[in-house]
Amino acid sequence: MSEVRMLRNGRLRDGRLVDLHVVDGRIDRVIDAAEDPGGGDPGADHPAADGASIDLGGWLVLPAPAEPHAHLDKAISAEMVPNPTGDLMGAIDAWVTAGREGRLTYADTVRRATAAMERLVINGVTAVRTHVDVMGPEPVAALRAVKEAAATFTGMLDVQTVALVSTPLAGADGAANRSALAAALAEGIDHVGGCPHLDRDGPGLIAVAIEAATEAGVGLDLHVDETLDADMLTLRDYATQILESGFGGLRSAGHCVSLGMQSDAVQAEVAALVAEASISIFALPQTNLFLQGRDDPTATPRGLTALKALIDHGVLVAAGADNVQDPFNLVGRSDPLETAALLVMAGHRLPDEAYDMVSNNVRRAIGMPEVRFEPGDPADLLVIDAPSVRGALADAPMSRRVFRRGRLVASADQRTRLHRP
């Protein structure tokens, strides 16, 4: 028997008040309340079950956001793993040292990953892709911890995992790291990851990653060019190798900061190559604004990728938060509205486009269907007490309802009071 729900009296971006008729987790019909003042007849074929009708109170209804680039094994560790220098290498050194000293236990990783997922869901996220460190004497320990945490969110949050391998990866010196990657693949991951710009043989890392992902039938999601050094441009190598290899799985690249330091001509050339290779790009404004540009006190770069050039050349560009309250980013709320607001302020995107970059663009990039409020779309929704998308990004109100496949999975209510003298 079909599971039917009616989500009544919601307001779409265009201002229409509608009732959403949801059958088995998918939007079956969008009923215009102006044409059906009675509240929308769910229809005789699929009558709504008792208690399956929810009044949305005229709140704004949006596609649920998704997080394309998280580090759930690192999240919420800023107090226990301080980064005194505040830069990227300081964060890496702090994390490696904490692991060597035994501060990063399995139980604590489960606890922190669980807390981070809770924050994501409460803020509206119904899908997340997370990179997980795969290295050391127990290379899949963090992966198992994140998976244990994810299992408690079944039916609430779709979780994809990326094996973030250490360097070097190619050649004789990379044998141990290739072994760690093999262990992660055996454990079960969705994507092969890595950081070619940190490897002394960046093209070699990319080649190994493509070969491993091809053999395992999984996707690729690499950290690429997380640096302001214009001489570093492994994104071009990545796109070229994808085209030469004929790799057919999902492929994406996070950061791509150095592309923003190139001339217009180079940006256009690389963007066209990335588009041809069908590589999705994940801009990560929060962490890159924090880490990049510290050595440039005059005309400090923003540390973002070349958003305009990539978008103009047809590249699928989405955005995520990256690190949240850890050595790589001391702040962050696990809220895609924060990411979208930074895209407006630092990335010069308009609010509606910025919200698309943290919702439907992410869903497309990670292989999930979009939510366009058409029949057959998944009923993954963020319902928020805001006048518009712009208002939602500006105020980030915490009065929210989160639906995954039409079922309410999280709610929050913001209450304020002004006490006048």
Can you describe this structure?
It is a single chain. This protein is α/β, with parallel strands linked by helices and 421 residues long. The chain is globular. It starts with a strand and ends in a 9-residue tail after the last strand. Strand 9 (191-192), helix 5 (202-216) and strand 10 form a beta-alpha-beta unit. The model is unreliable at 39-51 (pLDDT under 50). Helix 2 crosses helix 3, helix 5 (202-216) runs parallel beside helix 6 and helix 6 packs parallel to helix 7. It has an eight-stranded parallel beta sheet. The chain has helices at residues 88-100, 106-123, 141-151, 175-187, 202-216, 234-245, 264-276, 285-291, 307-312, 336-345, 351-357, 360-365, 389-395; strands at 4-11, 17-23, 26-32, 53-55, 60-63, 67-70, 127-134, 158-165, 191-192, 219-224, 251-255, 280-283, 317-319, 381-384, 400-404, 407-412. It contains 13 helices and 16 strands.
What's the arrangement of secondary structure elements?
Blueprint: E1 4-11, E2 17-23, E3 26-32, E4 53-55, E5 60-63, E6 67-70, H1 88-100, H2 106-123, E7 127-134, H3 141-151, E8 158-165, H4 175-187, E9 191-192, H5 202-216, E10 219-224, H6 234-245, E11 251-255, H7 264-276, E12 280-283, H8 285-291, H9 307-312, E13 317-319, H10 336-345, H11 351-357, H12 360-365, E14 381-384, H13 389-395, E15 400-404, E16 407-412
Parallel strand pairs: 1-4, 6-7, 7-8, 8-9, 9-10, 10-11, 11-12, 12-13
Antiparallel strand pairs: 1-2, 2-3, 5-14, 14-15, 15-16
